[in-house]
Design brief:
The protein has 229 residues and is an alpha/beta fold. The protein is built from 11 helices and 6 strands. The protein folds into 2 domains: 151 residues, 3-Layer(aba) Sandwich (Rossmann fold), CATH 3.40.50; 67 residues, DNA polymerase, domain 1 (Orthogonal Bundle), CATH 1.10.150.
């Protein structure tokens, strides 16, 4: 047969059974909001950051690691309760401004309708993921037991722990999992987990996603077709 499957498929050799979605930047359009709040609050502490610099330096990191990195740059500790204050402020802005990523709801629904399992695996806390999905009307697409947080495993992305935990809990072999990510660290984690991975590049660095090992997805509407559904 002349037609060859993409390398990522032949490497795992399995039809997809589970699609694992990152939340921020894949399902909900939150990265700009989160990093704008972060840049503003860090600038108030004397660490001048633009939105673009915050995204470059911190996007895809665990919140605790963002705090550590910011303190290293500042040369001093952030005030007590600063991270909690950031989370509260971000949630307030989410309630006013957060929207679903274009095409995300339809793509997830089509994947589900084709008989594949779906779940969410995020660096953020579960309560943040639940809030994000609720505010954007995506909550009905995912069972609560199908939401996973890096706070539940030993190491967050770029390590594979979160994706392997999600696959194990969902009862699917990693080789039958497909991940949709928007950060190089998330792509690296998926590759390390032995999973096929799409890099959603509408608002991300396409070259960086590709170099990390992703197949590029320019629009969420493309996903079902790329999965052969």
């Amino acid at each position: 047969m002349a037609h060859h499957a993409p390398v990522a498929v032949s490497a795992v050799g399995r039809e997809p059974e589970l699609v694992i979605f990152d939340c921020d930047g894949v399902l909900v359009d939150s990265e700009r909001i989160s990093n704008d709040v972060l840049a503003r609050m860090l600038s108030e502490e004397g660490l001048s950051k633009t939105l673009e610099e915050a995204r470059r330096d911190y996007q895809g990191l665990l919140l605790g690691d963002i705090g550590i990195a910011a303190e290293a740059e500042l040369g001093r500790s952030l005030p007590p309760g600063w991270l909690e204050s950031y989370e509260r402020t971000r949630a307030e802005v989410f309630r006013r401004e957060l929207r679903a990523v274009d095409g995300a709801a339809a793509a997830v629904a089509q994947v589900r309708d084709a008989g594949l399992a779906v779940c969410v695996a995020s660096q953020g806390k579960l309560e943040k993921t639940r809030l994000s999905l609720q505010l954007t009307g995506l909550g009905y697409l995912f069972a609560d037991r199908a939401l996973f947080s890096a706070h539940s495993v030993a190491r967050g992305k770029p390590h594979p722990d979160l994706f392997l935990h999600a696959a194990s809990t969902m009862g699917v072999d990693p080789s039958a999992c497909v991940v949709v990510e928007d950060t190089p660290s998330g792509v690296v984690a998926a590759v390390a987990a032995g999973m096929r991975v799409f890099g959603y590049a509408a608002d991300s660095d396409e070259d960086a996603l590709r170099q990390a090992g992703a197949e590029i997805l320019d629009a969420m509407e493309e996903l079902p077709g790329r999965l052969g559904l």
